[in-house]
Amino acid sequence: MSGGQPASASSETLVLGIETSCDETAAAVVVRDGSGRGRVLGNVVRSQWDQHRAYGGVVPEIAARAHVECLDDLIAAAMGEAGIGFDRLDAVAATAGPGLVGGLIVGLVTGKAIALAHGKPLVAVNHLEAHALTVGLTDGIDPPYLLLLVSGGHTQTLVVHGVGRYERLGTTIDDALGEAFDKTAKLLGLGFPGGPAVEAMARRGRAGRFSLPRPMLGRAEPHFSFAGLKTAVRHQALALQPLTDADVADLCADFEAAVASSVRDRVARSIDLAEPLLPPGSARHLVVAGGVAANQHLRATLAALATERGFDLVAPPISLCGDNAAMIAWAGASRLAHGLTDGLDAPVRPRWPLDATAAPAIGAGVKA
Ligand code: KG4
Ligand code: ZN
């Protein structure tokens, strides 16, 4: 996506964002106006998939090196699209966590160097907060809202009360949803990253041939689980060997259907819990964010649920669901507007939950 005219009014803030937490290197410039609305002026993303594909997943050392090799060029490209020099920036925002430590260091140190060299404030951004606030940039939706965050590393429902104020409701007790898509794709020989591949195959198949489990259905706590579903797909795949394309397509369709009904049930439970936490009479928004929010079947299922419960489903455009730096710049601009900046000694935080007070779900490992 490329930008329009550089901003000029003094109430506007211009922020450079840098994202290097996983396998996308990205830089972007956004402008936030005095009324809190945003616009993307420059936005570039370079995926490293080609470098990781042979290993079937992200290799941390390869990721860190790939970020080093292209980050400076991407920053120059984003600034070029925006048509501004570093002197015009009001702040530099870089992802400080959670994510792979090597990549985080590359991006945060680069952000610090630009901030120091040009005398600009630094904002050390939580990648999850950036996903959480994206709809402010793309759809003009401000907190409070109920958020379903579904990415490669996280699956959570949270009440977003405001910038920096998150109350976690549900979380996964095992795999993240994106991870379940990726592992399912791998075991079906669909390559990496798995989400888009499973979605494309599911479109060619028909759901209903296999009976896959709907994890956690009807449970009182709002948590998620996907490890059993992935294992059930594995057992079906083994029983069918050798798999035809039609088998794979039908398995993907049933996997997506099972995911959708499990997520629908779990989010419905989160809506019950969120209702008393949201201000009486305020608009009810269900926001979905993170890489898996690109999935059309999931979006349609959530849209139907939202309508049933008197909520509006808000989902960023597909291009800003996956990892990008526009969301980092926007989170930076939002924090800057609240006076929240960081020192040049800000650490990287490989693990950084949005709600540090949330109790781990029973059965959960290290994921928050
Ligand atoms: O937010 P994201 O880009 O990176 C993380 O912060 O993790 O999410 C990446 C995840 C991957 O697991 C990928 O397979 C999944 O999002 N994903 C999808 C789709 N597009 C990406 N999952 C299901 N359907 C999709 N269309
Ligand atoms: Zn992400």
Topology:
Layout: E1 13-19, E2 24-32, E3 38-47, H1 49-52, H2 60-82, E4 91-97, H3 101-118, E5 122-126, H4 127-138, E6 145-150, E7 155-162, E8 165-171, H5 177-187, H6 194-204, H7 227-240, H8 245-274, E9 285-289, H9 296-308, E10 312-314, H10 326-337
Parallel strand pairs: 1-4, 4-5, 6-9, 9-10
Antiparallel strand pairs: 1-2, 2-3, 6-7, 7-8
Bound molecules: 5'-O-[(R)-(carboxyoxy)(hydroxy)phosphoryl]adenosine and zinc ion.
Description:
The structure is a single chain. The protein is of the alpha/beta class and 368 residues long. The chain folds into 2 domains: 161 residues, 2-Layer Sandwich (Nucleotidyltransferase, domain 5), CATH 3.30.420.40; 171 residues, 2-Layer Sandwich (Nucleotidyltransferase, domain 5), CATH 3.30.420.40. 54% of the residues are buried. The two termini are 32 Å apart. 40% of the residues lie in helices and 18% in strands. Helix 2 packs parallel to helix 3, helix 5 packs parallel to helix 7 and helix 8 packs parallel to helix 9. Strand 1 and strand 2 form a beta hairpin. The strands form 2 sheets. It has a 5-stranded mixed β-sheet with strand order 3-2-1-4-5, sandwiched between helices. The structure holds 5'-O-[(R)-(carboxyoxy)(hydroxy)phosphoryl]adenosine (KG4) and zinc ion. Zinc ion binds next to helix 4.
